[in-house]
Structures are given as structure tokens and as C-alpha cells.
Amino acid sequence: MSLERQPLIGHSGDHFNEKEPTFWSSFKVTATSSKFNILLAFVPIALAVSFANASDTVVFALNFIAIIPLAKLLGFATEELALRCGSTWGALLNATFGNAVELILGVIALKEGLIRVVQASVLGSILSNILLVLGFCFLLGGVSRSEQSFNVTAAQTSSSLLALTTLSLLVPAAFSVTADEAGAEAQAGILRLSHGTAIILLIVYVLFLIFQLKTHAHLYEDEADEDEIPSTTLSFSVLSYVNIELTNYD
């Protein structure tokens, strides 16, 4: 007599009853993902006011309110993509395309010769990420946890990249300060130094991607107890992410 083996979790379990989300269910989940989504009403208002040539104060205030729910939706779309592509890819996507608006504005400002605008944008981004964001992580992480752990190798790699980036910004700046009254030849040398530094930083970034995604991907994997199921489709998550990025740019 053969013995029938019953699985510990049958096909009638909750895990197998989970249906693939549809477009409309994805839209509903995204629309109700946060209470801040009610502020999305300010997005068309802010666009209309900007085209109506209103005062800069009014345009700034309305756009500031409108960007709050967009940032929340951007985080939600990133989390949904991370559930399908992995936490490392999700974090990389957020870090790379999350600064796409600043990158585009920086290129346009450089083309128009607005050097101070680019400098203020880069400085504000650096201070925001290494001070404000890091400080909030320490504060909120310690509210519910008495002790937090992190991977030492990954932290050392990030610290080394931060030091390299800081040095790459300081060296051209130091030469620029000492050569303010120098001739055109010295200024051209500083420009070549800046171009070389930018190329080196791009190469280092590509090498870091290889380190993070290929050779040492295990250092950046989350130790999750349970596998979360995405609540939106992949196409809807990508579409939402792209639309939010374009709206932020506008």
C-alpha cells in the first residue's frame, strides 16, 4: 500500500491563492497607498499657475506642496519594483534615477553658464543626503530598535567612495581658488582637471555597480523573514515611476 504524502502547505493556502494584480487593482492600491495622495490635486494647480506667470513665491509654494505626494509615490513605486527585481536593484534605481531631475537641471544650468546654481544644487544635495537623510535614519531607526546592525564591508566601501568623491571635488576647487588671478592657460588647465575628475568618478561608479550587483551582491541582500508579494504589476510600477520622474522634472 502506497502512502500518500500531503504537503505541509496545500494549494488551497493563502500563498497559492494570491492572484496576479491587474492594472485597475494596481491603480487602486497606488492611489490609496498614502494619505498624502490627496495633495496630488496641487499638481495641475501648480502647473497652471506656473504657465500663468504668477509670482515666484506662489509658484514655489504650490510646487513644494505638490512634490510631497510625488515623493511618496516615488518611494512606493521603488518598493514595488524592488519586490520584483530585488532590494539591491530597487535601491540602485532609487539612487540613480532619484537624482535624474538634479542631473538634468545641472546640465541645463551649465549650458547656460549658471555656475552658482550648479554649485548650490550639488552642495545642497550632498548636505541633504549625508546629513539630513542619515540623521533621520539614525533617529527613526533607534525609536523602535535598541541596536541596529550593518555590513562592515559595505559600509567601508561606501565610506571610501564618499572620501574619494570629496577629494575629487576639493582638488579642482583648491586649484581654482589659487588660480583666480591667473591667466587663461591656468584656467584651461583647471577645466581639463575637472573633466578628468568627472571621467574618473564615472568609471568608479561603474566599478561600484559591478561590485554591488555582481561580485559582492550578497553583501547588499536583505535578510527578510517572509517574502512580500507585489501589489502592483511590473508594467504599472515602471509606468508610475517614469511618470513621477517626468512630473518632478516639469
TrEMBL record:
Keywords: Antiport, Calcium, Calcium transport, Ion transport, Membrane, Transmembrane, Transmembrane helix, Transport, Vacuole. It comes from the Eukaryota. Residues 57-213 form the Sodium/calcium exchanger membrane region domain. GO terms for biological process: intracellular calcium ion homeostasis. It is found in: Endomembrane system; Vacuole membrane. Has a role in promoting intracellular calcium ion sequestration via the exchange of calcium ions for hydrogen ions across the vacuolar membrane. Involved also in manganese ion homeostasis via its uptake into the vacuole. Belongs to the Ca(2+):cation antiporter (CaCA) (TC 2.A.19) family. This is Vacuolar calcium ion transporter. It comes from Apophysomyces ossiformis. The lineage of its organism: Eukaryota, Fungi, Fungi incertae sedis, Mucoromycota, Mucoromycotina.
